[in-house]
Amino acid sequence: xxxxxxxxxxxxxxxxxxxxxxxxxxxxxxxxxxxxxxxxxxxxxxxxxxxxxxxxxxxxxxxxxxxxxxxxxxxxxxxxxxxxxxxxxxxxxxxxxxxxxxxxxxxxxxxxxxxxxxxxxxxxxxxxxxxxxxxxxxxxxxxxxxxxxxxxxxxxxxxxxxxxxxxxxxxxxxxxxxxxxxxxxxxxxxxxxxxxxxxxxxxxxxxxxxxxxxxxxxxxxxxxxxxxxxxxxxxxxxxxxxxxxxxxxxxxxxxxxxxxxxxxxxxxxxxxxxxxxxxxxxxxxxxxxxxxxxxxxxxxxxxxxxxxxxxxxxxxxxxxxxxxxxxxxxxxxxxxxxxxxxxxxxxxxxxxxxxxxxxxxxxxxxxxxxxxxx
Length: 374
What we know:
Strand content: 5-15%
Number of helices: 15
Order of helices and strands: EHEHEEHHHEHEHEHEHEHEHEHEHHH
Distance between the termini: 24 Å
Strand order of the largest sheet: 2-1-3-4-5-6
Low-confidence stretches: none
Helix content: 40-55%
C-alpha cells in the first residue's frame, strides 16, 4: 500500500489518518510506502499550521504537491505495478482517493459562496483541480467518502464522476485516547493552568472561523464555564482572543495554540465542543468521545451518526443561546453516564476495523490505466 499525503504523522487531520492506517496495514503484514512533500522535493515549504505566514505556506504546499507531486507520484506508481496507491491530498494520482472534504460545500456552508471562492486564488486553483479529479476522466478507480452525506454531496456537485464511490469513516486509537483518571485529570489541569474545580469545555481546531469558535465564545456570557482552546496560528489566536475580550469573557478562555500532543487537553476537559459550519468527518469529535467527553456539535459530517442527543452529547445550531444551553445541560447531573456512553460509541470506530475496510476495497478496486506523466 502506497499512501500519498503532504505529511504523514500521528495527530489530528489528514496526516494523522494516513499514519493510523499505515500502522494498521503494517500490523497485518502489508508492505507500506509513503509519498509526501519530502518525496515531492517540497521539504522547503514550512508547515502551514505553524507560524505567521499560514496562507502563503498553504498555497505553496497545495500548488507544489498538486503539480510537481502529481508528476513524481505517477512515476513512483508506474515503477511499482504491484502497489495499491491511496491518495489523501492534492496529488492527481492513486487507485483510491479519500475525499476529506469538498471545498465548494465548505464555502457554501459559511455563506457568500461566490465571494469566498473568488477572493482567494487558491480556492479557484483547487476547484479547477477537483473538476478534473471528479470528472469523466478521473485518475482514480475509487473515491472513498467519510459519510453517506458526503457521498451524496459529491455526486450532486460532480455528476460526471467516472470513479466508483464507497463510504468508510475515519477511526480512532482507542488505546491512546481514553478517559482520564483523577490523577491524570489533576495533572493536566495543573499543566494548563486550570482550576481543579472548574467546569471546562474544550475546543480543538486550527480554523477558528469554520469550526465555530466565535459563537462558542459568546455562549460563555452569563456562565462560570471555562473554555480551553487548542490550535490555531498566532494570528488566528490573536483574533479570537480579541473577540473574547470584546465580549467580556477573555478571563474565561485559555488559548494554548498548537499542541503536538492534545491528550492533556482532553484529560483536563469535561465537555468537548465543535459547532462547525462544515466537516467532512471530524477526528477531534471522535477523539473527544474516546476520552469520555460528551460532545456538542452542529449537524454536520459524522456528528449525527456519532451523537445521540442527550445521551453522549448535544446536536444544535452554532447559536450562542443554544450552545450555552447545551453546555449547561452536559455539565449538569449524570456526567458519569454520559462519559460512559461517549466512550462506548468511540469503541465502535477503532482503526483496526477501518483498516480492514480499506484492505477489502483495495483488493477489488478498479485500476485506471496509469499514463506516463506529462
